[in-house]
Design goal:
Shape: elongated
Number of strands: 2
Order of helices and strands: HEHHEHHHHHHHHHHHHH
Radius of gyration: 45 Å
Largest sheet: 2 strands, antiparallel
Number of helices: 16
Strand content: under 5%
Structural class: mainly alpha
């Protein structure tokens, strides 16, 4: 019995020695691999097969009645780690790189990061599609200026109204010059088709000289309509952009406003924005549109807005905007309010002499001078819109009669020349 216990102790001591030897070899391999890794400076790499380094030690259950199985210790002693080294980094293929890129791009952005609108399908073509350009400008202001979406809407509206100021000043100058030209050329236009061709040519020459005197070259006439076209294009684009952003809705719109309309997505239940927008439209209509009618061709008593009934209708129309804007989001109505208020302010500045001189333009003509030119153009007897339209029709009939007379003379001349031949 004592001999068996002694043999068992000897076997266990051999197993423990073998385990200690394996542990030393593992430590040595780890140290060597670390040295090799530092020498290669990340150009080479190694990989260790843990399953091969750590040998599988079979557990054997000893029985005091069985003979000692010395082959177990021999298997443990003969076990050696299998280490495999590689001299190249793992190959990241194009597919792997694209997978990483897709994974990064699929991370959702929030409204504090530039590119958020593009990630949700907006502002995709900012270089040639105006609504996307406006959405890109709104995002730039919101992200880099760290302002609310409502402040970005107001700021963008003011900036585009400021950009239109030079065109509006140029429009006012051309309109005043055109009204002055019509006043001075009325007598020539009335007599142009009364006599023969020679008389017509003299009247036409006089009219051309008056155009040159008042600075009405063919290229100048575009400024009469260019501000209106630009304003309509930008206003419609900004309106559709905000409708899309409110309908999505864009992150940050839920707290992008102030006071009672903090949520720009919801409809203003108190109708505060609707009332403000209608009041701003009223101010713009009364102090800009009706005031600027004097600058338009055929101003004064000939203007379509000079009728007392039409002026009452124009003053009442702004308040009809309330039922039309009741179903719009607060963000859209905020834009309408900011747009009409800024149009009112800049419309008054266009007629301000100090502001015009500061921008390098001549002072605005006095109202008395404009009305005097309008009365001169209308003739001795003031005419209404219906009378002015009737006068234009009569002038056109005179032109047709003149063309017939000229054609008759041309036919007679051709007939006489054919008879001589």
């Amino acid at each position: 019995m004592f001999q068996k216990i002694t043999l068992l102790n000897n076997s266990l001591s051999v197993v423990s020695k073998n385990n200690a030897l394996i542990s030393k070899r593992m430590i040595s391999l780890t140290q060597n691999s670390n040295k090799l890794f530092s020498q290669l400076k990340y150009k080479n790499s190694f990989s260790l097969n843990k399953s091969s380094i750590l040998p599988t030690i079979q557990t054997v259950r000893f029985n005091s009645n069985d003979a000692v199985k010395t082959e177990v210790t021999e298997d443990v002693a003969n076990a050696a780690p299998n280490t495999e080294f590689t001299s190249s980094l793992p190959d990241f293929s194009n597919n792997a790189a694209s997978n990483i890129t897709d994974a990064v791009s699929s991370i959702p952005l929030d409204d504090t990061s530039f590119g958020y609108l593009k990630s949700i399908g907006m502002a995709e073509h900012p270089f040639y599609w105006l609504p996307d350009t406006i959405q890109q400008i709104l995002e730039l202001e919101h992200v880099y200026l760290d302002i609310k979406w409502g402040a970005a809407i107001v700021l963008t509206t003011i900036l585009y109204k400021m950009a239109l100021v030079p065109l509006q000043i140029k429009q006012s100058e051309v309109s005043v010059n055109l009204a002055k030209f019509q006043a001075e050329s009325k007598k020539y236009n009335d007599q142009m088709y009364d006599k023969d061709l020679e008389h017509y040519q003299k009247m036409q020459t006089a009219v051309l000289k008056l155009k040159e005197k008042n600075g009405l070259q063919p290229g100048q006439m575009k400024y009469v309509f260019l501000p209106m076209v630009c304003n309509a294009a930008f206003a419609l684009s900004l309106f559709t952009s905000l409708r899309q952003m409110c309908a999505y809705p864009v992150s940050g719109f839920e707290n992008g406003g102030w006071l009672w309309f903090e949520n720009l997505v919801n409809i203003d239940q108190y109708l505060g924005l609707q009332i403000l927008s209608s009041a701003s439209i009223f101010l713009y209509t009364k102090y800009v549109v009706l005031a600027n009618q004097d600058m338009m061709p055929g101003a004064g008593s000939n203007s379509i807005l000079s009728s007392p009934k039409m002026q009452k209708v124009m003053k009442f129309l702004p308040f009809l905007s309330i039922p039309f804007t009741m179903s719009l989001s607060s963000g859209v109505v905020l834009y309408i309010t900011a747009s009409t208020l800024s149009s009112f302010i800049f419309g008054r500045l266009v007629r301000n002499d100090k502001f015009r001189v500061m921008l390098g333009y001549r002072p605005f003509p006095k109202r008395e001078e404009i009305l005097a030119n309008a009365a001169k153009a209308a003739g001795d007897k003031p005419q209404g819109f219906r009378d002015s339209m009737k006068q234009m029709q009569n002038q056109q009939l005179k032109k047709v009669e003149f063309q017939k007379r000229m054609q008759k003379k041309i036919d007679e001349f051709e007939k006489m020349r054919s008879m001589k031949k």
